[in-house]
Structures are given as C-alpha cells and as structure tokens.
Design goal:
Blueprint lengths: L2 H25 L2 H4 L2 H40 L4 H35 L3 E8 L4 H21 L2 E9 L5 E9 L3 H5 L4 E7 L10 E11 L13 E6 L7 H5 L3 E6 L4 E5 L5 H27 L16 E6 L4 E4 L4 E3 L2 H4 L5 H18 L1
Parallel strand pairs: 4-9
Antiparallel strand pairs: 1-3, 1-5, 2-3, 4-5, 6-7, 7-8, 9-10, 10-11
Helix pairs in contact: 1-3, 3-4
Length: 363
Amino acid sequence: MATDVLKGLTEKLETLDARCREITQQLEDPANCSDPKKLIPLSREQGKLMPIVGKFRTYKKYLQQLDEARQMGREAGADAEMKAMAEDEAETLSEAADRLIEEIKDTLVMADDAAIDSVIMEIRPGTGGDEAGLFARDLHNMYTRFAEKQGWKIEVMEMAGTEMGGLREVIMNIKGPGVWAHLGYEGGGHRVQRVPETESQGRVHTSAATVAVLPEAEEVDVEINPDDVIENVSCAGGPGGQNVNKVASAIRLEHVPTGIVVSMRDERSQHKNRAKAYRILRSRLYEHYQQKANAERSSARKTMIGSGDRSQRIRTYNFPQNRLTDHRINLSLYSLDRIIMGEMDELIEALQVHDKQQRLANL
C-alpha cells in the first residue's frame, strides 16, 4: 500500500478509535444509560465502529510486535540462530499486518451498508400497459424468493393488483443481516423484452418497471416535526367489504417542506395505516436528505449503491435470449431463467465487487 494512502488511512482509523473510546465513556455515564434517546444512537454507532476499530487495534499490536522482533534481530549480534528466529517472526508479523490492513480497508468502505438491516422496497409498473404490471409482479416474486433464501423477514405493507394478475404497486419491508448491502443496488429503471402473456401474435414487446430501495430509517435517524405534516383521513375504497368502504381508515400524509406524499390504505385500522405511512415517510425523507448530502460532495466520491434514481435504466431482462444485462457494470448473464426465480447471487456479487473497487479508489 502506498505510504501516503496508508498514512491517510491510519489517521482516519485513529479518529474512529478515539470516537469509539469516547462513546464507551458516554455509555458508562448513568445519565445516558437512563435516556433511550441518547442510549440507542450511541449503542448503534458503537456497534458500527467496533468491527473496524477492533481490527485496527489488533493491527497496531502487530506493528508493535514487529518493531520488537526487528529490535531483537538487531540486538542478536553474532548469534545467527537468534537473528534468524527474529527475522522469521518479523516476516510473519509483517505479512499478518498487511493482510489485516487490507481487511480493514474492505470493512471500512462497506461498513455503513452492512449496518443497515431493514429496507423498504417499492415496485411500480412503467411504460407497457398490462405487460408492465405483469413485469412488476415478476420482479416482486424475484425479490421475494431471493429474500426467503437469505432467511430475511418480508412484510407486505401495500399491494394493489391489476385485472390481468399484475401489480399496480407493491411496497414491502425486508429485514435481515446484509439486506441493504445486497438489495441496495436494485433501485432504478428495469426494462423487459419478451412476448407478453397478453400477446397473441408472438411479437416481442418492451416494457418497464421502476424499483426504489430505501434504508428503513429509525425515529432516531429522522425526526419528523408534526407541524410539517398534513394528514388526511378517508374511506379506503376498493375491495374488502363494507368495513373498508365505510370506515375512514385510509391515511394520506404530505410532508410540506419536501412535498413528499405517502398514502396507505392496506389495513382496515386507521392506526395501523398511519403507523405504516409514517415508516414509509421516514424512509423517503432519509433518502431525500441522503441524496441531498451526496449531491453536495464531489462527483468523484459518489458511490453506485443507493443512488436509486428511478429514471436511470439500470437493467434489461431479455427473455428470448435468456439474458440479463446490468448496464452500470456492462455485465451480461445468460441465466435469466434462474435469476428471475430468485437466484441472484452471481449478479449481486458482481455489483458488490465493482462497488467496492470504486470505493477503494476513492478512499
């Protein structure tokens, strides 16, 4: 590793180590222990820092032991056996330190993503009529199967179907270790090329769907001022019996400063719909402020994951050729039949490798 890069990395790690020690002191303060608003964010920050700081502390021990081994070699004098032992130990410690600093780099650039274990995914059809709705359904099934294979918990928060069996919209919460590190790349425009179920002439059509993946923000991440939110309550309407049509249970929230609007009518309970609507609003606000912060950084420091621009076409699903192409990394896989069934590991691993390389280059 270049000397300047190593020096900059070490300085950053020393800052994180100092912050970790500061948090430990704050957590030992009885005043903080009795206040959940202080305790929760401090504990979460400490949990995110410890995997990096723990390795860095081990790395510093290796360097200290390496200095001692080299000093022993210098002091061995004419004792060839002692000198050889010291040199062997120094070489072993040097290799271990080099391996560990590489691990630390990887952990450092991906740590924020690994810490997010809950996302809200929104899938909606784009251009293409009924076929776009069917494609949105297929994407929903693909992500659901993949999540189930990972052992993640899936909660459908809102779902609206079409007469042809497709989807007009689906919003779901997916929870589990590494969920953002895997699914954070899925935000954007998805295009499909295939013969639709609705096509009798056998012609290939092109349709689209949009996917948004938002880290689910906790209340400690985003505070919403009630005065900034306009709430409207109405009857849910649609199928579901007399209760859905007559009881005012549908909730619509408008966040005035940003113009973000969330509607929720999935539950028959007004209270449950309000709770779900605020979860979605909080996550959309988190995304809004994160994108604003990213835009203020230099373009060289932007990373691919989490950009989630729904107007950006990120991927094409070509069924006649059994080919999936991810346009961001110019990757084509001729295993679309397996991927659409939820076997997304090869695709996601390629995106992660590319993303990590970009982040390391910008470190």
